[in-house]
Amino acid sequence: LGSWAGLVAGMAYMAAPYVLVDALIRGNSPESAALPLFPLLLWAGRRWLLEGKARWFGTAVFGLILLSLSHNISLLIFTATLGVYLLALAWLHRLNWRIWLARLVLLFGLGLGTTIFYTGGALLELNSVTLEQSTTTRNNDFRFNFTTPAEILAPVAPENPSLLNPPLPFRLGWVPLGLAVLGVAVAIFKRKKLPREIQFHVWLMMAGTAVFLFISLPISQFIWEGLPLIDFVQFPWRFVGRAALPLAFLAGVPFFTLTPALSHREKEQKSPPPGRGRIRVGVALTVALLVLEAIPNVYPNVCQEAAFPTINTVHQYEHETGLVGVDPEGSYFPRTVAQRPSSSPLEADYLNNEAPQRLDTAVFPPDTLVESITYEKLGVTAQINSPEPFTARYLSFDFPGWVATVDGDPVPITPEDPSGLITFPVPAGNHEISVRWQSTPTRTALLGLSLFSLAGVLVVLLVLVKTQSSVIGKRLSVNGKPTNYRPPMTDYRLPFTVALLLIAGKLILDNSETPLRRMAGPEVAHTAVLQAAELRLDGYNLSETTVPSGSFFDIGLAWTATDYPQARYQSNVWLVGPDGLTWSDLNTFRPRLYEDAPDTRAWLPGQGAWDSREVTVLRGTPPGQYNIVLTLFDFATLQPITLLAEDGSVVGPTAVLGQITVTEPESTGAAADSLGQIQSIPLLEFRQDRATAVPGDVVLLTFFWQRPSDAPLAQNFNLELHDANDAIGQTWMLPFTLPSYPPADWAVGTAVRGQHLLRLPAGLDSGSYQFVADEIVLGQIDITAPERVFEAVEMETAVNATFSQNDQPLTTLLGLTQSPISNLLSPISLLWRAEAETPTSYRVFIHLVNADGQILAQADGEPANWTRPTTGWVPGEYILDDHMLALPPDLPPDASLRIGLYDPATGQRLQTEDGEFVVVPLAQSE
């Protein structure tokens, strides 16, 4: 294309959004090293194919070697791309098949052969590690990593220094895309004036861009499911980055077509072509636009780390993140490791700067004499005298290449279950045992092949240098047209100008706000201001406001730190229906466009992050409006954080952010079979969330119904609980699903979900029970009833305070006993009498207060150490309830106890005649 067009194309590729995001934000050093090799290989490969000279062969083959060693996924993608490109060139130039075949075999055979020790070993030993986990887990599954046209064509967003995890759309960029479209238009308009090879390259690059983008979109899923090895690419969005190269070529086309041709006189006079100044100005403006669009991507959030990390740094990272093996999926563990370790027993050795003691002497039999242990770089030799045979253990995972010997003779290695560590048998007596890492026959053969290929590269280079001949004698010229004009020296004015402008621009951008880089609040479509500890929720965005049943939607929560966060906070979001039940999967996932936000303890006041969640609506959810419910909790303790409204009023541990509309589920067609018909409506599936329970527990029952062709008339059905003697212990009248969606409104063939949270009767006896509807046995549940006491136990202090809800007596606190205080611990026993059954599981609180009512200590929980919830109490039953109250060291003499019950869901307390609690003096004897 020429120097000017090449400069624009190179700048378009270097400033491509994918290239910058990959290097500066994703921190993918291997792929970032591979990306600049693509244009080099295309350029050198073309020259080698057409000219056959030593310098082009050397450049191409060593470029291919570097690509093989830098990023195997890029090698997998680009090798085929390079092959197709060179074959197309051979066809275009009508090369003799012996010539092009020989040159391609030399390039690919010797280039890939030189690194076969690395790539071949990885392929042949693929089944020795659990690498498939890198493609089967959700975040790495290609099905969840497709792009969309809207993402590819998205505009550049300003960089916000206060935002810790801005979205990462994989874009083409408006400027390179616009230049490419202009280049294609100009090439089509001037197609008769363009050299044949230029036309060929334009069409080839258009096809390459289209193919790469096609593979990045969901419509290409059939390719991902059928093409071998492509699933190891993991992410379809990688192909947006691959499309950046042919797009950059097309972006340079306008500057080739706009370059004026030289007249005969200008050729003779060796004068510069006319219009050169206009070309410079056009190139300068284009480069400036490319740089401006790239600016927001060159300010990544920097993660501070040690300048020279050590193995101890790795261990610390593993403990902080839980990613043992520095991989979220454990993909690189040997297949013999059935259970991933949580730490390494060698960490103490590394911390003390000692050689890691991999030979585990703890498994040696008693009285074993260890004469010597000598550690080498990859192995150990020990001289021991054992009184009995035993199995030695070496603290390294078993993998092909490890060899164990006893007195020089190989012994079999058995991977330990489930750790996968090396173990081998050692007989009784005095022996020299050794464990070493050595090459396998396969690796040795591959290394030999690599050395042979490298020697072949050197031989070919030597032969080509000596012959200095081109088989077909083609002369390659700039723009496809020979020219005698050469400037007296390289024109560095434009690069110098660009460099100065970049430096000046960076100084300006770093010290002032501009439309490209500015502090700004989060752009939220739905405002919902909530304060939670040191964080403030400014609002949220929804990917859609209407979602089909069984599908999912993305919600982005905009959090800002108002102070230094004191804990690692985490949120969750779910849908709640009008029945108060959850209608979405509680396991939410991070959408692909967003990185995980940093640990909140690292946030500074004023900094914020997007907390984005992918929420899946449960299959068969009936249509209607559902509340979006939020909670924030301490990740270490799982304790919910109290949410406050903008005016400071308490909202509670959860808050309703807004609503989303769920549409009717799609028809699944007639079911092949069903569990039977209840009220003439087929029941496809039945689930219960537990198989065992105690009286008073709640059980979630899930039904999947399907409307028959005839419109059903029933609105409800009877569900019965039968004991082992088929006696009915409880009957519930239930709607098939939400009352707002009666069976008559269902579409024929649609599977509809019904959910019911039922509380088991408090008076059930121990035994096996069945859920039955229309004489169809749906499921079984085993009930274990507590040992009930119907006679009062004598207590030290009488109380006789009755607690009520809406004037309905529920329980009476008859008395309590305070055992002697020991080590600032005060055991307290309460005696309750149930007055009525209750559907609410109340919690008991014991507050130690001073004379001013200030709480000094407290003990809250369900009765009897969480074993006797109030939902399982029957009238007339006595419940002994023990608590342990931790006392402060400076206990005031006038301290007293406040005792009561409250609903944990609402915080509402039960009432006595005198208030919300009873007051009892604290016994302070010790």
What does this structure look like?
This protein is of the alpha+beta class. It has 5 domains: 293 residues, no CATH class; 134 residues, no CATH class; 138 residues, Immunoglobulin-like; 108 residues, Immunoglobulin-like; 125 residues, Immunoglobulin-like, CATH 2.60.40.770. The radius of gyration is 37 Å and the shape is globular.
Jot down its keywords.
5-stranded antiparallel beta sheet, alpha+beta, 5 domains, 926 residues, single chain, Immunoglobulin-like, 6-stranded antiparallel beta sheet, 29% helix, 21 helices, 35 strands
Portion in strands: 25-35%
Sequence of strands across the biggest β-sheet? 14-12-10-9-16-17
How many separate domains? Answer: 5
Tell me, rounded to a whole number, the average pLDDT: 88
How large is the count of helical segments?
21
Shape field: globular
Q: N-to-C terminal Cα separation, in Å?
A: 94 Å
Give Rg in angstroms. Answer: 37 Å
Largest sheet: 6 strands, antiparallel
Low-confidence stretches: 261-269, 469-489
Coarse structural class: alpha+beta
Kindly state the percentage of residues in helix: 25-40%
Number of strands: 35
Question: Which helices and strands, and how do they pair?
Answer:
Blueprint: H1 3-14, H2 17-25, H3 29-34, H4 37-51, H5 54-70, H6 72-92, H7 97-114, H8 116-124, H9 133-136, H10 149-152, H11 174-189, H12 196-216, H13 221-226, H14 238-257, H15 264-269, H16 276-294, H17 311-321, H18 347-351, E1 369-376, E2 379-386, E3 390-397, E4 402-406, E5 409-411, E6 414-415, E7 421-426, E8 429-437, H19 441-467, H20 493-511, E9 526-532, E10 535-542, E11 546-548, E12 552-561, E13 569-576, E14 608-616, E15 624-634, E16 643-645, E17 650-652, E18 654-663, E19 676-678, E20 681-688, E21 692-693, E22 698-706, E23 716-722, E24 728-735, E25 751-759, E26 767-773, E27 776-783, E28 797-805, E29 808-818, E30 825-834, E31 843-849, E32 855-861, H21 863-866, E33 878-886, E34 896-902, E35 918-921
